[in-house]
């Protein structure tokens, strides 16, 4: 792509835990020379997504805590776009990863409203968790509306549902997503061309894509974010593997999403454990501590109808209390049960080739 062309800005949306960061990291790994700028928006004061993506690329801007569509206005978005669209950054495409509770329509509207002449709206990619599809639609009827305005829908986690179920979900998504292409994926592994080609500004710019007029103003009202609380937890003392597992196994239905990194101290001094819970799905992904990274646990918990103070207190009780509180010999076994088999890649880690995008340092 030539730098004289406007840079497409793709909005990557999808409900909590559907696999947006996983897909983004796949794109960054397999972009083959396409230089991708990333904006990440975390819902929670610890920027887990930003940390998960940051190792992969230099051109990442974190939009911080909150729901982008509420926290940001078009002029602020413009100042971030200004940074990423500088010719010196040499980017070909910019991807905005929305928080799992963002209203994609608002983001699209903001991108369309941008007066940055070097950027152009590049389409909405909506990620769907095939295993959570019915439950998500039930709790969040606005899901249907999000599908209807998408340009590409990725029915992700195809590996988690039987073939027949996948067909049913795909058929339902296709019916709702009138204008969008629908593809299935496991671990977000879509052909990057699919996004970038769709994102590339074409003659008759944005043909087939949403225009301002397609976006109705009144739909921010039933924004799902209002129903959710977020709890951030940090501990400088290691977590007790068995007590943390008991906490996770006993989590309530309302506590829909947990993500972060866990320090199990002496139980595994070499690794930190990325943890992800999405509904009843739970995984730990051990990875060597990055050099210079302080040994600490950082978690973000997102749920509706949850008691934040009680969750915080319960997690505090999962910390190793002191030298006499030694985790019993096989206490890591419970954790290891949730470490994926070989072949199931980590959300942001190995499991694929190294990123081919070059580092593009961008100062914000
Ligand atoms: N089995 C399976 N797990 C997946 C797949 N895609 C993502 N995951 C896992 O689902 C969890 C959530 O994935 P993320 O990529 O962090 O989801 P997200 O949409 O960025 O999450 P939020 O930003 O919190 O909304 C992680 O444990 C991923 O490894 C998939 O296709 N199959």
Automatic annotation (TrEMBL):
Family matches, as InterPro entries: CobW-likC_sf, CobW-like_C, CobW/HypB/UreG_nucleotide-bd, P-loop_NTPase, Zinc-reg_GTPase_activator
Q: Which domain of life is it from?
A: Bacteria
Q: Which Pfam families match?
A: cobW, CobW_C
User: Domain named CobW C-terminal: which ranges?
Assistant: 228-319
**Region annotation Disordered: where it falls in the sequence:** 339-364
Q: Which UniProt keywords apply?
A: Chaperone, Hydrolase, Nucleotide-binding
The record's listing under SMART domains reads: CobW_C
Residue ranges the record marks as coiled coil = none
Compositional bias of kind Low complexity: 353-364
Q: Which Gene3D superfamilies match?
A: CobW-like, C-terminal domain, P-loop containing nucleotide triphosphate hydrolases
According to UniProt, the reaction catalysed is: GTP + H2O = GDP + phosphate + H(+)
Query: Record keywords: Acetylation included?
Result: no
Family membership, please give it. Belongs to the SIMIBI class G3E GTPase family. ZNG1 subfamily.
Protein name per the record: GTP-binding protein
| Species this protein is from | Streptomyces lichenis
Question: Lineage of the source organism?
Answer: Bacteria, Bacillati, Actinomycetota, Actinomycetes, Kitasatosporales
């Amino acid at each position: 792509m030539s730098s004289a062309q406007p840079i497409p800005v793709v909005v990557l949306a999808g409900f909590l835990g559907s696999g947006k960061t996983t897909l983004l990291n796949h794109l960054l790994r397999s972009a083959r020379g396409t230089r991708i700028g990333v904006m990440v928006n975390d819902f929670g004061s610890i920027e887990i997504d930003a940390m998960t993506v940051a190792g992969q690329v230099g051109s990442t801007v974190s939009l911080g805590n909150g729901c982008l569509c509420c926290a940001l206005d078009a002029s602020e978005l413009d100042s971030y776009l200004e940074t990423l669209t500088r010719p010196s950054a040499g980017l070909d495409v910019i991807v905005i990863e929305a928080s799992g509770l963002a209203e994609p329509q608002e983001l699209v509207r903001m991108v369309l409203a941008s007066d940055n002449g070097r950027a152009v709206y590049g389409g909405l990619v909506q990620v769907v968790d095939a295993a959570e599809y019915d439950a998500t639609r039930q709790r969040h009827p606005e899901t249907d509306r999000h599908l209807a305005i998408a340009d590409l829908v990725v029915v992700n986690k195809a590996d988690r549902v039987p073939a027949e179920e996948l067909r049913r979900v795909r058929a339902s998504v296709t019916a709702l997503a009138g204008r969008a292409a629908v593809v299935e994926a496991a671990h977000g592994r879509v052909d990057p061309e699919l996004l970038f080609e769709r994102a590339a500004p074409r003659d008759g710019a944005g043909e087939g894509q949403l225009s301002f007029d397609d976006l109705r103003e009144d739909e921010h009202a039933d924004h799902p974010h209002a129903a959710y609380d977020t709890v951030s937890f940090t501990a400088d003392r290691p977590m007790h593997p068995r007590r943390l597992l008991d906490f996770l196994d006993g989590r309530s239905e309302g506590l829909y999403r947990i993500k972060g990194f866990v320090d199990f101290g002496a139980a595994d001094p070499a690794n930190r454990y990325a943890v992800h819970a999405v509904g009843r799905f739970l995984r730990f992904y051990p990875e060597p501590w990055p050099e210079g990274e302080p040994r600490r646990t950082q978690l973000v918990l997102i749920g509706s109808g949850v008691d934040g103070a009680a969750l915080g207190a319960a997690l505090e009780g999962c910390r190793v209390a002191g030298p006499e509180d030694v985790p019993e010999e096989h206490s890591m076994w419970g954790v290891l049960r949730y470490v994926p088999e070989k072949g199931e890649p980590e959300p942001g880690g190995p499991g694929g080739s190294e990123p081919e995008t070059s580092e593009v340092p961008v100062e914000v």
